[in-house]
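Entry:
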Amino acid sequence: MTDLHVPEGATWAQLSPRLRRILLEAPDEAVVVATSGSSGDPKRVRLTGAALRASGEATADLLGGHGRWLLALPTHHVAGLQVLARSVLAGTVPVALSPGMPFTAAAFAAALGQLVQEGDGPRYASLVPTQLHRLLADEEGTRAAATLDAILLGGAAADPGLLTRARDAGVRVVTTYGMSETCGGCVYDGRPLAGLRVRLDDERVLLSGPMLADGYVQADGRRDVGRTGERFAEIAGARWFRTDDRGEVDADGRLRILGRVDDVIITGGHKVEPREVEAALRALSLVDDAVVLGVPDAEWGQAVAALVVPAAARDLPEGTDAWRERLRRALPPHALPDHALPRRVVVRDGIPLLPSGKPDLQHIRGLLSRSLI
């Protein structure tokens, strides 16, 4: 039987019969999903039933058992697909927010109410940071989120301030790290799932375990030997996936992601970590969210550039020159060295996102490159 290629907008009713076969009866058969394309280079990833099952069972063990799932992410990307796969393994039916409709706290609360009515047991959801942020900004959404046994949060780096707000509101958030090539999240709160191994190659994160993808396929379904060989390799008798991420492992064995291999900004000979600048900006009361990237600059080589979402909509009309100065004045002394302060700023009412919920870095980079300050 041919692999199951998941089309955009696919539903539980459309996918569940094949998923049951792949997960429960034919572990060598596979599902093909597209990567998010956040770096501008989407790929087709082949996930066998055995890999999906290993991931789902390890997740259930960590969370405290199989349960009922709320589907708030697109099924043609791995995080949404995993909600369906985990539901198959649990013998439950997920409740989905209306596909194609904007994510709102009211819609989330209504779907969760339906999930509660359909049975007992643990209740879970997978979200991206933007969705959690919207829930915590709304009283009804916050109350609903707090009734879940766990929210798996992935797709982008989680802001520490957001996690603190969730914890203070009684919402259990489990941060996840992973990608399509690892059947989604495979490191939870810094701890690898059962069976996953982590190693570092000059800070680059390498992953090995039963939840690894079979590799990449072409549009016609044939194996993409070239791309697969670039990323998957045998090392010391085990199969490893070479990520695009930099990381470190602390004394307690927790993996901390530092950023992408190619996202360190070299400006005027200084190295700048975008995540550190983003964290400093998000800590300001006038900033709701921020994405920081390096963009080409004739004088500095690269310039630190920030797309900023203001905390108050009334601040949107203010010019970017004024916003740069407001940010510089608002940052506490020594919060950032001078070379790390944003030299270019774009102000928007929201972070441009891909369908997967990840920031659309290609689009953001274009906005920042065109905004010279």
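Residues 51 and 210 are 6 Å apart (CA to CA).
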